[in-house]
Amino acid sequence: MAKSLVIVESPAKAKTIGKFLGRKYKIKASVGHVIDLPKSKLGVDIENNFDPQYITIRGKGPVLAELKKEAKKAEEIYLATDPDREGEAISWHLSNALGLNNNENNRIEFNEITKNAIQKAIKNPRKIDMDLVDAQQARRVLDRLVGYKISPLLWRKVRKGLSAGRVQSVTTKLICDREKEIDAFEPEEYWSITALLNKDSIEFESQLFAAISDNKEKKITIKNEDETNKILKELKNSDFIVKEVKKGNKRRNPYPPYTTSSLQQDASKKIGFSTKKTMSIAQQLYEGIDIQGEGTQGLITYIRTDSVRISDEALKNTTNYILDKFGKDYCVQGRQFKKKKKDDIQDAHEAIRPTSVYRDPEKIKDSLTKDQYKLYKLIWNRFVASQMTPAVYDTLSVKIRANNYIFKSNGSKIKFDGFLKVYTISNNSKDINIPDLEEGEKVDVNKINPNQHFTQPPPRYSEASLVKILEELGIGRPSTYSPTISTILARGYVILENKYFMPTELGILVTEILEQYFQNIVNEEFTADMEQKLDKIEEGKITWKSVIKDFYKDFEKVLEVAEKEISKIEIEEEVTDVECEKCGRNMVIKHGRYGKFLACPGYPECKNTKPLLKEIGVKCPECRGEIIERRSKKGRKFYGCSNYPDCKFVSWQKPSKKKCPECEGLMIIKKLKKKDKLKCTVCGYEEETKK
């Protein structure tokens, strides 16, 4: 009979831990929170010093009853929820619900789900940390006040189903602000001149860099075609003489191991995962995977962390692994990375790393799904690379004079790969193969190319760049980024267009209302300052109710003003030329959970609705119906046949109006960075096209 009860959050974690502790322990899962604020009402007693009114979550009664039953039979009870604020709050709620003494040592925590870590945690229980609990209570109450006070206002003034939130509203504003920058952007013309030079049949490029005035080099900017033609005229028949040759080397240091934020960014850029998908798969790797020959093992450390710290044991093992696998030239002894922010309370955690460096991704590939393998390999490579030597490049910089102008060529080649042995990086610089040159020698000119350019507006946010800016501004915490992005997509405030966020008319309208009446809620500095106050609560420096009280004092006043001043906003419905087949009225465009649709304006007498079909002027290759633009439930754009479900044609890439010149087949548009490409879906023929 089990003498000790261990309560964790997820069944997967319970399964893994159960194999490490043996029959003396019974492992049960709370399946997340069991107690929370009610959904049906505010649940915060504003008149009574903001006391939260916690209830058992609907549907969790049987779970709690089972835990109480097991608790009565157990001699010892351990609360083993996640090692963060939310996990601490879950343990506190469980402790109260089970009638435990909060002053007893019944809370255990671990950074990884391995046998050693679990057994060590069992031997070192502690009291529940009420500072951590209070920081979570403050966040929960603060977000409840903002969401449940502003959202009903938006329902009454704009339309039902809208919501506002302390982090989600600022995130939407960032996307709206970027769109304003793009709309207001006026491109400026500029030119560049590239010389194609030659020595010993080796051709290399050299860019116009500077002009000589009063025997001094001054960096040159060419604004228009007239200036370009003037320079070209002066360069005509000029000798290109090598003025300066500089040889050297540069070192490129490895990156630190992943934090939650950097993992989300890299997974988006390198393997195309959304933040939601990244966190879901990382959770699976953390909680445990059944590995052939080993059983269920937690493969990575805790995934919600701001720390880049590595444990001494992990450093020692990694050093030995690198020495054995790659040799001493690739090994750095116990490198620790410094954090950008000082005194960060989250540094009690470690960076995200494999629980065993000896568990090479290739060795366990057969035990993982395709996506699990991709993410685990990314984490393993980054961690191992962080303990390897820098990469070394030989560099060559050449200045070449022609008349009174200086051209410049920079080249480099890798001398020692170092950490690049296991971790690839994107290199935005263009490495040029430059021949051996000496000062004073003449090089041949093959061609001089003038190129017109225009300055580009700032890019829209991708998931990676949005996460990056949220972290830089201190908005939310890395663990909140994924649910925040999911929320603003689900609410229809933004859409993903070719993997970049664009605000909808609704998102812009709601943001404008919030900016006018709730400036603090959508103010980046205010939101970041609130995160710092939450950190101070966790450190025990301030009380959580004082933070809520100070916030609500001003918030209540602006709520009253907004209620009085915001008039009912009628969003004009766009009338289409599509007739309702039931009553003959012209149908209008409505907004629903999954985007726009057509509805009869005669509602409630006529309740006819139909999908909004956006034709692109291309016939379906299978049934000759119209290809239309659609959106998936997650907001991703795709193209399908208007005769669905009779015709199942579908394409994620936009079909082109141009037919294949080889076989008359359907061509699709493949979006690339500089140019687009047309590809035939029948014979594979490809050709480049303008964006």
Strand order of the largest sheet: 8-9-15-14-11-16
- Contiguous uncertain segments of 5+ residues: 342-347
CATH C-level of the largest domain: Mainly Alpha
Global morphology: globular
Q: Give the biggest sheet.
A: 6 strands, antiparallel, barrel
Q: Terminal Cα separation, in Å?
A: 70 Å
CATH topology call of the largest domain:
Topoisomerase I, domain 2
Structural class: alpha+beta
The CATH superfamily of the largest domain is identified as Topoisomerase I, domain 2
Put simply, the count of helices is 16
Number of domains: 5
Rg over C-alpha atoms, rounded to the nearest angstrom: 31 Å
Average of pLDDT: 90
CATH architecture of the largest domain: Orthogonal Bundle
Helix content: 25-40%
Report strand %: 15-25%
Number of strands: 30
